[in-house]
Amino acid sequence: MQEEPIKVVFLGDSHFAKQPMDAFFPEVQVVNSGINGNTSQHVLDRALEAVPPNTDNVVIGVGINDLLLGGSVEVFATNMESLLRTLQKDRSNAERIVLSIMPTADPMYEADINACNSLLRSMCGTYNCEYVDLYEPFVLGSVIDTALVYDGLHLNEVGTTRWVELIRTSLMNKRKRQ
Asked: Which whole-number Å values give the CA distances from 125 to 93, 122, 129, 140, 178, in the listed order?
């Protein structure tokens, strides 16, 4: 009898939506639930629809649009806490991997990104999630390394390769524990 493939939902914004996640992770069954422009509120609103009950892992990547659209760290934190609580309660079988917010080319967001990431790291302890730091591997000084992006925000091929490897490491660690 053949073992069913691991089902992974990528839940978030354009960082998932713009990528062929199934091509990057052929060893698992991928559901790409990334939507361009999504904020933490959008992801919260559609989480249970986007993450089927038989999901093994959900990788959550959202937050920069909250800040780019003028949202506060506090609202982001409230939404993310609600999202993680909802997934823990209603999709308890799904291991949760939370990606930090990456830096941008604009240093004015640095303090808020760092505040959000600190809150995410703490929430992962509370809600038994794995936190993946995508800030440090992409930052150069106080902004994203411009060699890794094509528009100051979205990853180019070099940046995408680094991003995929960081996510892959986390997913493979989860698979070994399942």
From this structure: 17, 5, 7, 27, 19
For 58, the 3-state DSSP assignment is strand
Say whether 128 sits in a helix, a strand or coil.
coil
Model pTM? Answer: 0.96
Domain 7-177: which CATH number of 3.40.50.20, 3.30.450.20, 3.40.50.1110, 3.40.50.300? 3.40.50.1110
pLDDT tens digits, 63-76: 999 999 999 999 99
Decide if 105 contacts 143 (C-beta within 8 A): yes
Q: How far apart are CA 178 and CA 170, in angstroms?
A: 13
CB 117 within 8 A of CB 80: no
